[in-house]
Amino acid sequence: MIAKKITIDVVSDVVCPWCFVGRKRLEQALALNPDLDATVNWRPFQLDPTIPAKGKDRQRYMQEKFGSSDRIFEIHQQLTELGGEVGIEFDFEAIQVSPNTLDAHRLIRWAAQATPNVQDELVGILFSYYFEQGKDIGDRQILLEAAAEAGLDAAIVESLLPTDADVVGVRQEIDMASQVGVRGVPCFILDQKYAIMGAQSADVLADAIRQTADGYEPRPA
Question: Dihedral of the CA atoms 135, 89, 198, 97 (nearest 10)?
């Protein structure tokens, strides 16, 4: 029996904790559909493109964004609990820098040209570096470490990072996401037909993936 195929484009940012949760739930959703042949592509989005290239002090950035230390604590507490449910060990206190993620998205774009699943593996590494280990994923040396860990050619990556390679392409993709209505991430686009916004439960994602693969077409109202 030939497996049904589906393509899932995930619009996300690697400094978005909900995107990390969403990636884990997507893994669970795909495990609930073992007979499907799913191709997962990671697409760029920047929660805050105004952050300087060298990043910004994390504590100061969070205070400016949320205002209240109590509010920040509540958000982190909620995410820590949700993360525990899907195998993520969030360590928000370890994060010292809020990075600009443009270079990270360039690296993710290059990883798509490697062997299958390398891009997804790299995204997982970057999420873990930032949220579980507190590494500055805006630092090009850290990006080289991630590239090597994912199995990319670190020498090629090292030669490309200082250049403007794919800067325009990444920014165009981000602009395109906004033009088609993506206002928040994660956003899961199934076979370029349906979009699921937010870190939905694995069951919701699994059902949507199954229906799309089966060729479901909603009836007009």
Answer: -20
Q: Is 189 contained in some domain?
A: yes
Q: 164: how many CB neighbours lie within 10 A of its CB?
A: 8
d(CA 152, CA 155): 9
Query: Which amino acid makes up residue 165?
Result: A
Say whether 149 sits in a helix, a strand or coil: helix
pLDDT digits (tens, 9 = 90+) for 110-167: 999 998 899 999 999 999 999 999 999 999 999 999 999 999 999 999 999 999 999 9
DSSP, res 134: -
Range(s) of the domain holding residue 48:
4-213
4-21 mean pLDDT: 97
Structural contact between residues 14 and 101, judged by C-beta atoms closer than 8 angstroms = yes
- CATH number, domain of 112, equals 3.40.30.10
The string of DSSP letters for 97-114 reads EE---HHHHHHHHHHTTS
